[in-house]
Design a protein that fits this description.
Elements (H helix, E strand, L loop, with lengths): L2 H14 L5 H8 L3 H7 L3 H24 L5 H18 L18 H23 L9 H21 L4 H15 L6
């Protein structure tokens, strides 16, 4: 059993039931609870590891999306799709919005890489505002929160079965792009 497989099992269990006991994680990972505690001292340490895994996944997806095109509108659209795809895997982490993750326990280099990926995203918004493609009345912070909310709503809609998977990204992009003033999509 390696750490990655244990994190994978934790993500699987916690997506189904965020309050599931660690015994359930150990059961799905097919290890003893004692072995689980050799890797993670407690539930918080395991959740922090899942969070770090999510940041790494998000970082890779966002950089790939950003590099997928030179058109900033298409980059923004690809980044929304990447956020949705990443969010589907880590839906349980949305329950942590009100709870702080132990950032001190995280690898500083990974946090820096994550922040650099976010900066690329933030650079697109003012660029599109200068070209009058995105509404200048909206702040970058507002647009970032809207982006995250659309991604979360998309994941929830997909998991609930209320929206057909083949319509999901189209609806997400239409909602997000129109709400920030992009009408050319």
């Amino acid at each position: 059993m390696n750490r990655e497989k244990l994190i994978y099992s934790a993500v699987k269990v916690l997506n189904e039931d965020f309050h599931a006991p660690l015994e359930r994680v150990a059961e799905v990972a097919q290890i003893s609870k004692r072995t689980l505690y050799r890797y993670f001292k407690d539930r918080d340490a395991l959740i922090t590891a899942c969070y770090v895994d999510m940041l790494e996944t998000w970082y890779i997806a966002m950089v790939s999306a950003f590099n997928s095109d030179t058109d900033p509108v298409k980059q923004l659209e690809a980044m929304l799709y990447a956020a949705i795809d990443s969010g589907v895997k880590y839906i349980f982490l949305h329950a942590l919005e009100e709870r702080q993750v132990d950032v001190a326990a995280m690898d500083k280099e990974k946090v820096i890489a994550y922040e650099q990926a976010k900066e690329k995203w933030f650079a697109i918004v003012p660029q599109l505002q200068e070209k009058h493609i995105i509404d200048n009345h909206l702040s970058s912070a507002w647009i970032r929160h809207l982006f995250a909310s659309v991604a979360r709503a998309s994941v929830k809609a997909l998991n609930s079965g209320d929206v057909a998977p083949n319509d999901l990204k189209k609806f997400a992009w239409l909602s997000f792009s129109r709400s920030i003033g992009i009408v050319q999509s």
